[in-house]
Amino acid sequence: MKEEMSSVDIKYIVEELKSLKGARIDKIYHDRSEIRIKLHKVGEGRKDLIIEAGKRIHLTSYIKEAPKMASSFTMLLRKHLSGGFFEDIEQHDFDRIVRIRVGNYTLIAELFRRGNVVLVDENNIIIGALRYEEFKDRAIKPKHEYKLPPARDSPVDVSWERFLELIKSEDIEIVRALARKMNMGGLYAEEILLRAEIDKKKKTNELSEGELKLIFEKMKEVFNAPKKPNTIYKDGTMVDVVPIELKWYENYEKKYFETFSEALDEYFGKITVEKAKIERTKRLEEKKRQILATLRRQEEQMKGFEAEMKKNQELGDLIYANFTFIDNILREFSKAVEKLGWAHFKKRIEEGKKAGNKVALMVTSIDPKEKAVTIEIDGKKIRLHLNKSIGENAEIYYEKAKKAKHKLDGARKAHEDTKKRLQETEKLIEEEMKKEPKIKKLEKRKKKWFEKFKWFLSSEGFLIIAGKDATTNEIVVKKYMNENDLYCHADIYGAPHVIIKDGKKAGEKSLFEACQFAVSMSRAWKEGLYSGDAYWTDPNQVTKKAPSGEYLGKGAFMVYGKRNWMHGLPVKLAIGMVQYEEEKLPMCGPVEAVKAHTDKYIIIRPGRMKKSEFAKRLAKILERWGYKVDLDELMQILPPGNGEIVEVVE
């Protein structure tokens, strides 16, 4: 499986991430080798950029739970980058290095080897890094100049002459030459040679100029191929992710994506979730391994105790089975020892063996110290104590069998207890694996065209849209206002342009609600005003033409002619989930408008609660009603500034 992105992958993802230009950096998170940058792009909403040192960079929908304590590197990045704008992104010389420019700062992602993330100022001086390191030719330390590795040739724009020079500089297999000299890695080297139908093991000096020319052309073909992101599956398992269609994988199962970010996110996101599961059960798995080792030891002990019990039981039984014979041996040997002593007794036994005496041949050892003789009957050795009766000798073995049985019973009980511990641990592992990981996948629904603006449905069912900022104000009027609509605006600086779609058919209710919306979504809310004035006009009265000598900036328009005023409009709105076509959408609009479309709603007005906390409070109420609303989505539909809840209608 692919562990990190290649230079080719980085080329394609950097081209794609250029779409982030103009996005504002909201928040930055850091967890181990990962940096997650939460951005907001006007008209597109939330974007999460993940940078994992030494591995990857792409937009992600897999969001880890934020660390409880922000690291010093997190605080440093937030200090310099939060609130800034994503100005540009570039790949350094077809290397695995990506540079992101934010104002006067550049965030550098090193995606080779262990990798690093480095923040530098406008003079390329290091402010901070994920990890401080020192090498022979460069140092990653604060106040040091950040030095890039030497430039490398790119297969994308290398000339034919330079290509020949590089490939012929070393007589090695062509597949290795392409991978190393052109910095493309093994997969793409294999792909080019597959397309060129040239043996990859051919040495560079064995290739004709025509063959090299064909390789060069196929290389250009590969690296100018149209983007077609896909993940690769083998036997149902995802094994790779690539930005273009590869002949190398033509017989594999594939899944295609609209963007390379989505494909990378699917691939690395799944790996991240699996790693999180493994990490979560690591301690339990180690405990399981220890329990299994204990079980194996106990099973070996049980076998030993069982064998010992059986052996001693059999020896005791053997004594009684040969009662008369063994009783005679005990008496005869006892008399001989008493008469001759142990030394002469041993000598007499040895002499008997030489003479072929049947009883002497049965003796295998003599132990004067223990006053014992070991004899062999039916292939089994029995130790007989000459100072004990036959019954006492048999009892010695029966007692040993009893002790072994007692130990066996204890071992069996311990074994059962250990098996229970194993089952409990396996159950805990299973439960942990079922638990939701601390990584959630943001399932982003496809938004309606009007959700890029402030919007609501009037109580009469008319769609009303408004700009969020200078850019969307310009778009609302220029692109979405037509002659059948009506235009509204609040009598205060910093108010949005409001359009009632098909407004010439609208009644007084919709006109009132649109004007109230214009006031409530204006600076009046941020300034804590409780009422304001607004007007509506015909679209033909709204123009970009400025009075003589004046200039209208982005998002600004002039209104000429009669204005239809409405005074003392309340700065008050409501939040609720409303049905639109096939789905429920969170809507923020005038109270009467929201009330007309849902039975449950929250009435709000300007207040002291910070907007982010205010949004969380509203989200919890909606969740209580069974609606899971993305917090960023909720923030986008709320009026500017802080607020408070007036009433919750259920």
Describe the structure.
A hairpin with a 2-residue loop joins strand 13 and strand 14. This protein has 16 helices and 31 strands. The model has no long low-confidence stretch (mean pLDDT 91). With 650 residues, the chain is α+β, with helices and mostly antiparallel strands. The chain is elongated. Among the domains are: 7-140, ibrinogen binding protein from staphylococcus aureus fold, CATH 2.30.310; 323-398, no CATH class; 449-649, no CATH class.
Characteristics of this structure?
650 residues, alpha+beta, ibrinogen binding protein from staphylococcus aureus fold, six-stranded antiparallel beta sheet, five-stranded antiparallel beta sheet, 16 helices, 31 strands
Q: Please give the alpha-carbon distance between the first and last residues.
A: 52 Å
Low-confidence stretches: none
Structure class: alpha+beta
Mean pLDDT: 91
DSSP helix count? 16
Query: Per DSSP, what share of the residues sits in E-state strands of 2 or more residues?
Result: 15-25%
Radius of gyration: 42 Å
The oligomeric status of these chains comes to single chain
Principal-axes geometry comes out as elongated
How many beta-strand segments?
31
